[in-house]
Amino acid sequence: MTDRPREARLTQVAALPWRRKRNGSLSILLVTSRTNGKWMLPKGWPMPGKSDAEAAQQEAKEEAGVTGIIAEAAIGSYYYIREEADESTSPAQALVFSLQVTGKLSRWQEKGQRRRRWFSAEDAAAAVYEADLARFLGNVAAGRIYLS
Fold first, then answer.
1. Sequence-ordered list of residues with C-beta below 8 angstroms from that of 56, at least 6 positions apart, any chain
2. DSSP strand E in 1-148: where?
3. Is the pTM higher than 0.85?
């Protein structure tokens, strides 16, 4: 019996856009995927010349039309299976960076390709497709992951 080589895991960066309501409750902004319309965090590839946090912040601006204060260190990660346009799949991990939203744009790069919506932390965990992202957001909702 021979060992099969492990497939390399792709690494992306994701922003977790959030805000506090007047009553102190947490709201999380999700966007839909361009390909299948499922709810997700804004995410993309690391960018040359930018830190991973800056790349995640850029993805939030392009995909969700929000600006804000990004944490320089990842607050965690989640695993998923990335589906490519040719229907192939690859194992992937997204490093998640907290983004305290301070502004919303009325026009942004992918506005016509995605929807954005604010959810309670609990509802965000229930709305996303990827199981590990749902677990991650459940930990945010339970206060086990600190947003700064």
1. 13, 14, 15, 42, 43, 44, 70, 95, 96, 97, 99
2. 10-20, 26-32, 39-40, 43-44, 66-70, 76-83, 89-104, 116-120
3. yes
